[in-house]
Amino acid sequence: MATGKIRMGMIGGGKGAFIGAVHRMAANLDGLIELSCGALSSNPENAITSGKELFLPEDRIYTNYKEMITAESKLPESERMHFVSIVTPNNVHFEPAMLALENGFHVVIDKPITLTLAEAKALKEKAAETGLFVCLTHTYSGYPLVKQAKQMVKDGTFGNIRKVCVEYPQGWLSLPAPADNKQAAWRADPKKSGISGCMADVGTHAAHLAEYISGLQIDKICADLNCVVDGRALDDDGNVLLKFNNGANGTLMASQIAAGEENALKIKIYGEKGGLEWHQAEPNTLLIKWLDQPMQVYKTGNTYLSAIAKFNTRTPSGHPEGYLEAFANIYKNFALTLTAKQNGEQPSAEMLDFPNAEDGVRGMAFIENVVASSKSDQKWYDFKI
After folding, report:
1. Helix spans in 200-316 (H)
2. Rounded to whole angstroms, how far apart are CA atoms 370 and 381?
3. Where are the domains of the chain?
4. Which of 44, 188, 203, 303 is the most exposed place for a label (fewest CB within 10 A)?
């Protein structure tokens, strides 16, 4: 039987890194995971300082990920980390993830999963070969009412799905970013971000959410990407027409130059009998719209919600759950899955409800296909994997 908390190692996420702190808060929320070691920066001095500030044992503070993975693999099973969380720019995803899998460690990784589709496929194959788990932090799939929406679609509540509209506008890159803005700098650098900027950063979230809730897969696309701000090397805005594998149509808009917008992710899905609408800015509300009845408003924490929504809810109705709780649901389900496997048990469907390597492959395929479609004169571009 597994005893104690699931032990996490972290690569990246040191001082000044926004997303690393979010990962640590999310992992810690349910008391199932503890941060045991870290290679928290590519700068050795910052790595050591960051580790000390997080009260890591000095012998578990590493100055690079290769050192960490090698050293941890040599520790007794009762001491070594169980998984590594990779919270680095896109170009430092594949190698540490592959090395972790090769040394027997599960992996949590920020999206997009890798820098290229070929790398994503290789990572998926390695995970299958080793029997280890790869978890991808598509945060928005962790909200209780997103899971409620998915369950209602799956149950056929709205009939055959006909249309999916998703948009993710931000405004933080409406002007050229200051030179000292590290978050903007690496996202605009093809060597670190890959072949896409906005679509890789937030468009992949929108695409994943569309497929996650609808249960469908994008089959064809017609994309138009733009670099609105002069001098920017990668797209900061884009529009994509979608066709899904059941014949449904859709639209996807992602932008980081939508001045005045903060993080306005929203999705609408329509079937034969009705539809749904969810906004990330109001995550505890799900609108259900009917063809021949008044609109219904679902709220987080109520008894009428599905079992999967309740499994991912912590507080009673009227006590809002937000971004950190949604993020934590991914870590909680991942940790419960690892604990079940350690105990020789089969993880439940609720535990296994976290984005995985297959989602990562589809995310990288989305990026590469959208970029190719935007460059092509062809109206409809087959979604190739």
Report:
1. 204-214, 307-311
2. 9
3. 6-136, 141-319+363-382
4. 303
244: its two tokens: 């899904």
CA distance 257 to 194: 19
The residue type of 220 is K
Q: Report whether the peptide linkage leading into residue 112 is cis, meaning its omega lies within 30 degrees of zero.
A: yes
Q: What is the CA radius of gyration of the chain?
A: 21
243 touches 218 (CB < 8 A): yes
Q: How far apart are CA 139 and CA 209, in angstroms?
A: 10
Strands 266-271 and 296-299: unpaired
Question: 6-136 falls under which CATH superfamily?
Answer: NAD(P)-binding Rossmann-like Domain (3.40.50.720)
**Continuous segment of H or E residues that includes residue 36:** strand 33-39
> Which ranges constitute the DSSP H helices of 6-116?
18-28, 44-53, 65-73, 94-102
Instruction: For residue range 64-90, list pLDDT tens digits in order.
Output: 999 999 999 999 999 999 999 999 999
Side chain identity at residue 168, one-letter code: Y
pLDDT in tens, 190-220: 999 999 999 999 999 999 999 999 999 999 9
